[in-house]
Amino acid sequence: MKIRIKGNYPQGLEITRGERGVPHVKAKDMAGVIWGMGYCHAMDRGLQMLVMRILGQGRGCECLDDSDEMLEVDRFFRRLNWGGRLKEQWNLLNAEEQGLLSAYCDGVNAYLSRKRPLECRLVGYKPEPWIPEDTLMICRMVGYLTLAQSQGEVERLFIEMVQAGVDSDLLASLFPVEAEEIDRDLLSKIKLEERLVPETLKWLSPVPRAMASNNWVISGAKTATGNAMLCNDPHLEVNRLPNVWYETTCQWGNQYGMGANMPGLPGIVIGRNHNLSWGATYPFMDNIDSWIEECKEGKYKREDEWLDFTVRKEVVKRKKHDPLELTFYENHHGVLEGDPNQEGFYLTTCWGPSLSGANSVRAIFKVTRSATVEQGMEALGKLEVAFNFVFADNKGNIGYQMTGLYPLRKDGVNGFLPMPGWDPEYDWKGFADPKDLPREYNPECGYIVTANQDQNHQGVLDPANMPMGDYRARRISQLLEERGNHDFHSTRAIQMDTYSIQAREFLDILLPAAPDSRGKSVLESWDCKYDFDSQAAPFFEAFYSELRKKVFGEAGIGVDIMVHLEQETGVFIDFYQNFDRMMTDENSPWYKDFTREQAFAAALAKAEEGYDWNKTWKDVNKAMLTNIFFGGKTPAYLGFDYGPIPLRGGRATPHQGQIYNSGGRQTTFSPSFRMITDMGEKVLYTCIAGGTSDRRLSKYYKDGVEDWLEGKFKKLEGQLPE
């Protein structure tokens, strides 16, 4: 179906819709293609783009909803200052790159100037034209929110646990610190403005008794066709409409590209062209640091001097209230969390790419036109936000490159701990060369897997200090090793696999230690798969939850705290590896009042109390896909939401299906988009949790959900001139 483009547009541009409404953009040159991408983004995902921009600018109360909740969102984004110094980033782009980015904005505005989303009319918002700085700001946002943000949150949790009096040896067993590195006196003086654990919950101080994405590439030596293959399924939030990702195919001259990007960003973020494919996961890079600032009378200490902060005043306009002025205090370490006029110790925090954007846009443009794995590694190695990219080309090569601005610190400094801001020795010394980050090219084993696990051994530097558990990576590697003739069907089966190595390893400890019981019998017969009809999977999760409360709650942190961390944060979704290690290690310092086997048996018995044995995994692990604008507040008959839908898999299975609460709302980790490609074909197999359009009345609003649930893929085909 051909899309009629109104108004002026690049000569030779043609946009058609293919299967599931995925647009195909054909143009004479790349500038024409990028213009067409902008037009399609505005047409199909205009609301998504505009909401992202409004939130990033901290203008929710002005443009959307003047509520107390939205005011806190605005305050959060104003503090981060994503809009700061964007013009500098624009000036770093060369003339061609500026031309491409301007073409994207022209395409966006060509559509939005004629037709704005209905929801904008409902709230009285008339969108301003899309400008290059908006795209540069979104580059920053997508690399921080829920990704780098989680590293900052776990570092805050560590400080809270120190201040609550949790023993240093116990802390050292859970976090990447040595007990002797913990300056309890100094850390206890920090005034925390925001806490992960509310102060109303009671920490249990020690007493005398003491107490989530997958990608992989396969060389031709292990595939049925003899060609390299790439598979990717980024695990992001899926309980939303529209989906995070937007699919596109495009053609210009004798080149094509296809895959997924995010509305607001031009180019192909993950996907392929004729010669090269690339896919991404998150590496849990520690590129966010905090410094302790000693403050008084509005100043901060720097060596023997007291210096003035840079004062930034922001005015939040409100639809129903008077404007609110916010004041932020900044220095070279970042934004202060507190008021320096009140004497004390406060934190400043900086995320490495906080003033970035230009190099990320440049990297996406370059990789879209790269022809070899080495070119792709070089192009995306310059990306400023942190990702694990894998590559495969049509010459049979495969590769891996971690990306992101990784700060160089003084030798021996642990970036997980807040540093003394008054000592210049603790300032960042620049950023790492991408070639010193983890990377690999054509390994002997014939494949590369990244699944948020520790990849430090593949680089000169150690950028990750709190990676996810390696269970998914181990399972994927296990399945890749089982055969030497992988194809679409075998790799699809890996993406849909729900076997949990984590569960197997816990059961190997539990079953010999526990007395006979109904719960033990259920788990003994379990195949460790988190399938929809499994009755054992939800019971194992009940046991696992009780075990965490027993080991960490009773033995030092407090049961109420553990319940809060489990039910209201993503701590155990992202950072379960060290907690698991301490639960399975019989010599763990957390086992002082009871043995490992006693803890496991007690947790099983507790989980059995009042348990509903009839429920299955699909009964308990389900989520509603809610419209991003209305947020689940519309009546069901209007059809803005979909579900609830069950999610297969758990935290540690290749097909992840994790549901949890964070920031006061339900969220998920699951394969938001799946893609598989064989580099001997001009085909990309994909499925997406949602549809192409964010328009409720469009047939492409949610038409892909059921296929995504069942693992049914569609076929995108690259097109070249005859």
UniProtKB/TrEMBL annotation:
PANTHER family: ACYL-HOMOSERINE LACTONE ACYLASE QUIP, PEPTIDASE S45 PENICILLIN AMIDASE. The active site is at 213 (nucleophile). Keywords: Calcium, Hydrolase, Metal-binding, Zymogen. This is Penicillin amidase. Belongs to the peptidase S45 family. Ca(2+) binds at residues 153, 286, 289, 462. It comes from Desulfatibacillum alkenivorans DSM 16219. It comes from the Bacteria. The keyword Cell membrane does not apply. GO terms for molecular function: hydrolase activity, acting on carbon-nitrogen (but not peptide) bonds, in linear amides; metal ion binding. Binds 1 Ca(2+) ion per dimer. Its cofactor is Ca(2+). GO terms for biological process: antibiotic biosynthetic process.
